[in-house]
Amino acid sequence: MSAEAATTTIPYVCDELADIREKLAADPAAKWGFTVYRCTYESDEEWAAFMTYLNTRTRLNLEGTGDGDLFDRVDWNVQENKELFGAGSTGAGPCELRRHFIEHVLPTLSPTSSVDFPDSARTHAFLQVNQMLVGLALYKAPPATEFDAYGRGFVGIMSVDEEEGDFDVGISYILPRTYVLLDGIGWDNVYDSDGAACP
Fold first, then answer.
1. What Cα–Cα distance (Å) separates residue 133 from each residue in 31, 98, 112, 137, 198?
2. Strands of 125-129's sheet in order across
3. Angle at alpha carbon of residue 72, lines to 168 and 137, rounded to 5°
4. C-alpha distances in angstroms, 23 versus 7, 27, 28, 117?
5. What is the domain partition of the chain in residue ranges?
6. Highest taxon of the source (predicted)?
Protein backbone atom coordinates (compact mmCIF):
# COMPACT_ATOMS: atom_id res chain seq x y z
CA MET A 1 0.00 0.00 0.00
CA SER A 2 1.38 3.38 -0.93
CA ALA A 3 1.86 6.05 1.75
CA GLU A 4 -0.61 8.24 -0.17
CA ALA A 5 -3.32 5.56 -0.05
CA ALA A 6 -2.69 4.85 3.62
CA THR A 7 -3.34 8.43 4.62
CA THR A 8 -6.27 9.20 2.34
CA THR A 9 -8.57 6.21 2.66
CA ILE A 10 -11.07 5.42 5.37
CA PRO A 11 -10.55 1.71 6.02
CA TYR A 12 -13.53 -0.56 5.53
CA VAL A 13 -13.79 -4.29 5.16
CA CYS A 14 -13.52 -5.36 1.55
CA ASP A 15 -13.29 -9.13 1.85
CA GLU A 16 -16.09 -9.12 -0.72
CA LEU A 17 -13.47 -8.21 -3.32
CA ALA A 18 -12.37 -11.83 -3.20
CA ASP A 19 -15.39 -12.67 -5.38
CA ILE A 20 -14.53 -9.92 -7.86
CA ARG A 21 -10.91 -11.08 -7.91
CA GLU A 22 -12.00 -14.67 -8.55
CA LYS A 23 -14.21 -13.65 -11.48
CA LEU A 24 -11.43 -11.55 -13.00
CA ALA A 25 -8.93 -14.38 -12.61
CA ALA A 26 -11.30 -16.80 -14.33
CA ASP A 27 -11.71 -14.56 -17.37
CA PRO A 28 -8.72 -12.47 -18.50
CA ALA A 29 -10.99 -10.42 -20.82
CA ALA A 30 -13.43 -9.42 -18.06
CA LYS A 31 -13.64 -5.88 -16.73
CA TRP A 32 -15.42 -4.35 -13.77
CA GLY A 33 -16.76 -0.92 -13.00
CA PHE A 34 -19.88 0.94 -14.01
CA THR A 35 -20.85 2.40 -17.36
CA VAL A 36 -20.71 6.21 -17.14
CA TYR A 37 -23.07 8.42 -19.12
CA ARG A 38 -21.50 11.77 -19.94
CA CYS A 39 -24.39 14.25 -19.85
CA THR A 40 -22.35 17.45 -20.08
CA TYR A 41 -20.40 18.88 -22.99
CA GLU A 42 -19.61 22.39 -21.77
CA SER A 43 -15.90 21.68 -21.36
CA ASP A 44 -13.80 18.75 -22.54
CA GLU A 45 -11.06 19.91 -20.15
CA GLU A 46 -13.36 19.75 -17.14
CA TRP A 47 -14.64 16.36 -18.23
CA ALA A 48 -11.09 15.05 -18.51
CA ALA A 49 -10.34 16.48 -15.05
CA PHE A 50 -13.46 14.78 -13.67
CA MET A 51 -12.41 11.40 -15.10
CA THR A 52 -8.93 11.90 -13.63
CA TYR A 53 -10.59 12.64 -10.26
CA LEU A 54 -12.73 9.49 -10.51
CA ASN A 55 -9.78 7.32 -11.51
CA THR A 56 -7.47 8.73 -8.84
CA ARG A 57 -10.03 8.20 -6.09
CA THR A 58 -10.77 4.67 -7.32
CA ARG A 59 -7.09 3.75 -7.50
CA LEU A 60 -6.46 5.07 -3.98
CA ASN A 61 -9.49 3.20 -2.63
CA LEU A 62 -8.21 -0.05 -4.09
CA GLU A 63 -4.65 0.55 -2.92
CA GLY A 64 -6.04 1.32 0.53
CA THR A 65 -7.55 -2.16 0.78
CA GLY A 66 -4.50 -3.88 -0.68
CA ASP A 67 -6.23 -4.44 -4.01
CA GLY A 68 -4.41 -1.92 -6.18
CA ASP A 69 -3.74 -4.55 -8.83
CA LEU A 70 -7.47 -4.63 -9.63
CA PHE A 71 -7.38 -1.04 -10.87
CA ASP A 72 -6.00 -2.12 -14.25
CA ARG A 73 -9.22 -4.09 -14.83
CA VAL A 74 -11.55 -1.14 -14.14
CA ASP A 75 -13.45 0.05 -17.21
CA TRP A 76 -15.86 2.99 -16.98
CA ASN A 77 -17.27 2.30 -20.46
CA VAL A 78 -18.05 6.01 -20.96
CA GLN A 79 -21.03 6.71 -23.21
CA GLU A 80 -20.51 10.01 -25.02
CA ASN A 81 -22.96 11.54 -27.47
CA LYS A 82 -23.72 15.24 -27.22
CA GLU A 83 -26.86 14.98 -29.33
CA LEU A 84 -28.28 12.11 -27.28
CA PHE A 85 -27.03 12.86 -23.76
CA GLY A 86 -26.10 16.55 -23.69
CA ALA A 87 -27.90 19.20 -21.64
CA GLY A 88 -31.22 20.06 -23.23
CA SER A 89 -31.35 16.83 -25.22
CA THR A 90 -34.32 14.51 -24.92
CA GLY A 91 -32.09 11.54 -24.16
CA ALA A 92 -30.54 12.67 -20.89
CA GLY A 93 -33.46 11.80 -18.60
CA PRO A 94 -33.59 8.66 -16.45
CA CYS A 95 -36.04 6.81 -18.71
CA GLU A 96 -34.05 7.56 -21.86
CA LEU A 97 -30.69 6.68 -20.30
CA ARG A 98 -32.12 3.46 -18.91
CA ARG A 99 -33.55 2.53 -22.31
CA HIS A 100 -30.23 3.27 -24.03
CA PHE A 101 -28.33 1.22 -21.47
CA ILE A 102 -30.65 -1.77 -21.84
CA GLU A 103 -30.84 -1.65 -25.64
CA HIS A 104 -27.31 -0.60 -26.60
CA VAL A 105 -24.89 -1.14 -23.72
CA LEU A 106 -26.06 -4.31 -21.98
CA PRO A 107 -25.65 -6.48 -25.09
CA THR A 108 -21.99 -5.44 -25.29
CA LEU A 109 -21.33 -6.11 -21.59
CA SER A 110 -22.64 -9.66 -21.45
CA PRO A 111 -22.80 -11.11 -24.94
CA THR A 112 -22.49 -14.81 -24.13
CA SER A 113 -20.14 -15.87 -21.40
CA SER A 114 -18.72 -14.59 -18.14
CA VAL A 115 -17.10 -11.57 -19.80
CA ASP A 116 -17.92 -8.51 -17.73
CA PHE A 117 -19.77 -10.65 -15.19
CA PRO A 118 -23.30 -11.16 -16.45
CA ASP A 119 -25.72 -10.72 -13.58
CA SER A 120 -23.37 -8.36 -11.77
CA ALA A 121 -23.37 -4.75 -10.60
CA ARG A 122 -21.83 -3.86 -13.98
CA THR A 123 -24.98 -5.02 -15.76
CA HIS A 124 -27.52 -3.86 -13.15
CA ALA A 125 -26.66 -0.18 -12.74
CA PHE A 126 -24.90 2.72 -14.43
CA LEU A 127 -23.67 6.21 -13.54
CA GLN A 128 -24.91 9.57 -14.85
CA VAL A 129 -22.77 12.71 -14.68
CA ASN A 130 -23.99 16.20 -15.64
CA GLN A 131 -22.24 19.58 -15.45
CA MET A 132 -23.38 20.29 -11.89
CA LEU A 133 -21.84 17.02 -10.70
CA VAL A 134 -18.59 17.72 -12.55
CA GLY A 135 -18.44 21.12 -10.86
CA LEU A 136 -19.09 19.69 -7.40
CA ALA A 137 -16.30 17.14 -7.78
CA LEU A 138 -13.78 19.62 -9.13
CA TYR A 139 -14.59 22.73 -7.09
CA LYS A 140 -16.55 21.80 -3.95
CA ALA A 141 -15.38 18.34 -2.91
CA PRO A 142 -12.02 17.57 -1.29
CA PRO A 143 -9.23 16.76 -3.75
CA ALA A 144 -9.24 13.21 -5.10
CA THR A 145 -6.30 12.37 -2.84
CA GLU A 146 -8.55 12.85 0.21
CA PHE A 147 -11.38 10.46 1.04
CA ASP A 148 -14.66 12.39 0.82
CA ALA A 149 -16.54 10.76 3.70
CA TYR A 150 -19.51 13.11 3.38
CA GLY A 151 -20.05 12.63 -0.35
CA ARG A 152 -19.66 16.30 -1.31
CA GLY A 153 -18.62 15.07 -4.73
CA PHE A 154 -21.17 12.60 -6.05
CA VAL A 155 -22.74 11.13 -9.18
CA GLY A 156 -26.13 9.72 -10.05
CA ILE A 157 -26.50 5.95 -10.08
CA MET A 158 -29.46 4.33 -11.84
CA SER A 159 -30.77 0.80 -11.68
CA VAL A 160 -31.81 -0.88 -14.91
CA ASP A 161 -34.99 -1.74 -13.01
CA GLU A 162 -37.18 1.36 -13.27
CA GLU A 163 -38.97 0.46 -10.03
CA GLU A 164 -35.67 0.61 -8.14
CA GLY A 165 -35.07 4.10 -9.47
CA ASP A 166 -31.92 6.12 -8.96
CA PHE A 167 -30.04 8.03 -6.26
CA ASP A 168 -26.78 9.87 -5.69
CA VAL A 169 -23.63 8.16 -4.44
CA GLY A 170 -20.44 9.77 -3.16
CA ILE A 171 -17.53 9.39 -5.59
CA SER A 172 -15.33 8.05 -2.80
CA TYR A 173 -17.83 5.20 -2.36
CA ILE A 174 -18.34 4.10 -5.98
CA LEU A 175 -15.51 1.57 -6.24
CA PRO A 176 -15.12 -0.72 -4.61
CA ARG A 177 -17.82 -0.21 -1.93
CA THR A 178 -21.03 0.47 -3.89
CA TYR A 179 -20.06 -1.92 -6.67
CA VAL A 180 -19.40 -4.73 -4.22
CA LEU A 181 -22.64 -4.12 -2.32
CA LEU A 182 -24.69 -4.12 -5.52
CA ASP A 183 -22.83 -7.14 -6.83
CA GLY A 184 -23.52 -9.06 -3.65
CA ILE A 185 -26.46 -8.08 -1.48
CA GLY A 186 -28.26 -5.79 -3.88
CA TRP A 187 -29.81 -2.39 -4.56
CA ASP A 188 -31.84 -2.05 -1.36
CA ASN A 189 -28.67 -2.15 0.73
CA VAL A 190 -27.20 1.00 -0.83
CA TYR A 191 -30.31 2.89 -1.95
CA ASP A 192 -30.75 6.26 -0.26
CA SER A 193 -33.82 8.30 -1.15
CA ASP A 194 -32.78 11.23 1.06
CA GLY A 195 -29.42 12.26 -0.35
CA ALA A 196 -26.02 11.08 -1.51
CA ALA A 197 -25.38 7.56 -0.31
CA CYS A 198 -22.11 6.97 1.49
CA PRO A 199 -22.47 3.24 2.25
1. 25, 19, 35, 6, 16
2. 79-80, 35-38, 125-129, 154-159, 166-170, 196-197
3. 30
4. 29, 6, 9, 7
5. 3-197
6. Eukaryota
Half-sphere exposure of 35 (CA within 13 A, CB side): 26
How does DSSP classify residue 12? -
Q: Residue 157 is which amino acid?
A: I
Report in angstroms the alpha-carbon separations of 189 from 40, 50, 181, 185: 29, 27, 7, 7
C-alpha span between 173 and 57 (Å, rounded): 9
Inform me whether the pLDDT recorded for 11 exceeds 80. no
d(CA 38, CA 92): 9
Q: pLDDT tens, 14-48?
A: 467 888 898 889 888 889 999 999 999 999 999 99
Is residue 161 packed enough to be buried (19+ CB in 10 Å), middle (13-18) or exposed (0-12)?
A: exposed
* C-alpha–C-alpha distance, residues 187 and 182, integer Å: 5
pLDDT tier, 115 (very low <50, low <70, confident <90, very high otherwise): very low
